[in-house]
From TrEMBL:
GO terms for biological process: regulation of DNA-templated transcription. GO terms for molecular function: phosphorelay response regulator activity; transcription cis-regulatory region binding. It comes from Streptomyces griseorubiginosus. It comes from the Bacteria. Keywords: DNA-binding, Phosphoprotein, Transcription, Transcription regulation. Residues 126-224 form the OmpR/PhoB-type domain. This is Two-component system response regulator.
Length: 224
């Protein structure tokens, strides 16, 4: 089946060019010109991924993304002329799966879409991952330790899920950046910050929790 994309973009020339190229690349595309129409499209059944512009005439694309993330894990690629690091980080922290800065090639957009779809639908992924007292429900996007829920941001959840899927295995910062953020422009400090926050949340639990161990010069591992 052809993957169904929601393209939320207010520039008609750019949107028509994207839609034409994406349809030739094998996608079905539904185009929305503003946040209101985009919200309606995003809640339709059968949409596999959204391509979302941040500068919409009737609202912020970030706010639309924030609202979507409160109810859905639909993959989202943000496209924007805002290339500052703060803008990119904000989009990814709210829950974008990738961030493309305009101008970009249509070929790169197609490659990013395929990559995000692959990451969002891992083959034969277990529904529940356990590592010691830690339990991760990958379908419900929930994690808990001895039944105590963890309040995690999307990237924190993805980081913990990856480490818990292979307890004791060491992942380098570059591997974590590629698998979770899928973006070469991110700095290793991004991983350091997320590990720090995860350790704080695990350490604040009343029950003994798995530890994230740093191996200097190598990377990180989860010790149940």
């Amino acid at each position: 089946m052809r993957p169904h994309l929601a393209l939320i973009e207010d520039d008609p020339d750019f949107a028509l060019m994207c839609r034409s190229y994406l349809e030739r690349a094998g996608f079905t595309v539904t185009w929305a010109m503003d946040a209101r129409a985009g919200k309606s499209v995003l809640h339709e059944s059968g949409v596999d991924l959204a391509v979302l512009d941040l500068g919409l005439p009737d609202g912020s694309g970030l706010e639309l993304l924030r609202a979507l993330r409160s109810t859905s894990r639909l993959p989202v690629i943000v496209v924007s002329g805002r290339g500052a690091e703060a803008d990119r980080v904000a989009g990814l922290e709210i829950g974008a799966d990738d961030y493309l800065v305009k101008p970009f090639s249509q070929r790169e957009l197609v490659a990013r879409i395929h990559a995000v779809l692959r990451r969002s639908q891992p083959p034969d992924a277990p529904t529940v991952v356990r590592a010691g007292a830690l339990t991760i429900d990958t379908a419900a996007r929930q994690a808990s330790v001895d039944g105590i829920p963890l309040a995690l941001r999307p990237k924190e959840f993805a980081l913990l899920e990856l480490l818990a899927g292979a307890p004791g295995r060491v992942f380098s910062a570059d591997q974590l950046l590629e698998r979770i953020w899928g973006a070469s422009w991110q700095q290793p400090a991004t991983v350091v910050e997320h590990v720090y926050r995860l350790r704080g949340k695990l350490g604040a639990l009343p029950a003994p929790a798995p530890r994230i161990t740093t191996l200097r010069g190598y990377g990180y591992r989860l010790d149940p």
